[in-house]
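subagent[fold] <- orchestrator: predict structure for attached chain, return tokens only, no commentary.
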Amino acid sequence: MPPRKKSTWVSIVINLLLTFLQVVGGFFAHSQALMADGLHSLSDLLSDMLVLYANRHGNRHADANHPYGHARVETAATLILGTFLAVLGVVLLVAASRQAGQADALQTRCDELLRDDELFRAIHVHRSHAQN
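subagent[fold] -> orchestrator:
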């Protein structure tokens, strides 16, 4: 096995392990940052697979259906990876904005509960003084 191909396979194994651990860890820890990092590792995994595919098919010689060879496979693989990364970025942006909206709503609700608690205490103190 050529060294470049071997290093790609090592990268695939490591990125597969990283993806799994980061996504599962992020899910259980409720960490959007860890989940995002896991999805980034997934994109690296996809990149490694596309490298293997492009190297295998891009080096084929010309044939009847492809008189100029298969070199454009590498360009198509790059386009696929770029599209995947753009879509992943939009998905993460939307998820982060939704979570930020939920955090604002949660903060507003906590503020309301604190004000209600303060109002309850003020009424309770006022009644205690009125009864004495």
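orchestrator: received. Logging for downstream: The mean pLDDT is 75. Residues 3-131 form one domain.
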